[in-house]
Amino acid sequence: MYLHLSRSAVIPERDILGIFDLDNASWAHKTREFLERAEAEGRTIWLTEDLPRSFILADSRWGEPVVYISPLSSATLAHRAERDGSE
Question: What are phi and psi of 39, to 5 degrees?
């Protein structure tokens, strides 16, 4: 199955390592550091120009994980994954 993250971004659910609420997760220093490093290394894909609400950590199969920044909430993305998985 695939998960629609926003815009035209769709990734295989098997590649998802985690779905995180950006506000809650970014409080941790290590998470902010990880996100900043991913951005500096070009492993971040922004799916919004508006206020981001979540980030998805995905296996790239070519090396380091990719970080998708989405305007959708982590709850919405998790619900989509659960719904698609039950059909």
Answer: -65, -45
